[in-house]
Write a structure and sequence with these properties.
With 216 residues, the chain is an alpha+beta fold. This is Fimbrial protein. It comes from Proteus cibi.
Length: 216
């Protein structure tokens, strides 16, 4: 299943302005699309459950678990976390944090060690405190401590190479931008819990138990 200016002086000014604008326009064409990705409403939107079901029916899903340690700290009430992916820009902006929520930082230099806001209930389900760690905490912001993912199995598939950028609404209500190579993950215990893991972040933090097949 395919996955889917009236005188000579004025003319001179006009020519100058035209020549000046040309390189600006050329420069704009060279700016990567992610710079403009903040306006996610301009991208087509898919319904996450239907999209994942389509992948399952096509037989291209696999299973993976998050295994790499993370750093985390309690979020401040009302705090808003902007998730920035190195080389891509802003991925998402969280809703204000509530009491008990956590700020989780992936330890992944390839993506810039991006941060995400994790709600209290989800954090308890997904992470446990780590007493001993090889992480050099002195190199990270104060207040963070290491946590170990609980190894919850996640269904996943990789967005096909031919797919143009699109969005899906994440379970926490925000639009996420998806592009080819990203992983779409789904909790094995909650079919609605579907969201994006950027390609490099997935490769950096997840261990594959059952490889997903590439879509034809």
């Amino acid at each position: 299943m395919p996955f889917d200016i009236q005188n000579s002086h004025s003319n001179s000014d006009k020519t100058y302005k035209k020549n000046r604008i040309k390189p600006l326009l050329i420069g704009l064409t060279l700016i990567p699309s992610f710079v403009f990705a903040n306006d996610l409403s301009q991208l087509p939107q898919k319904e996450r459950v239907a999209y994942f079901t389509q992948a399952q029916q096509a037989g291209i899903t696999g299973v993976a678990i998050k295994t790499k340690l993370v750093l985390a700290r309690p979020a401040k009430e009302g705090e808003i976390i902007t998730t920035i992916i190195k080389g891509e820009g802003v991925e998402t902006v969280s809703e204000p944090a509530k009491v008990g929520d956590w700020v989780v930082q992936n330890i992944c230099p390839e993506t810039g060690n991006e941060e995400i806001l994790v709600r209290k209930a989800k954090f308890v389900q997904r992470y446990s405190a780590t007493e001993k760690s090889e992480i050099n905490l002195a190199s990270y912001p104060r207040g963070y401590q290491p946590f170990t993912p609980k190894g919850i199995e996640m269904n996943y598939f990789i967005v096909p190479e031919s797919t143009l950028p699109f969005t899906m609404k994440a379970p926490w209500g925000e639009l996420q931008r998806f592009q080819s190579g990203d992983a779409v993950v789904q909790s094995t215990t909650d079919s609605q819990d579907i969201y994006r893991i950027q390609k490099a972040a997935f490769e950096c933090t997840y261990t594959i138990l059952k490889p997903a097949k590439l879509a034809k």
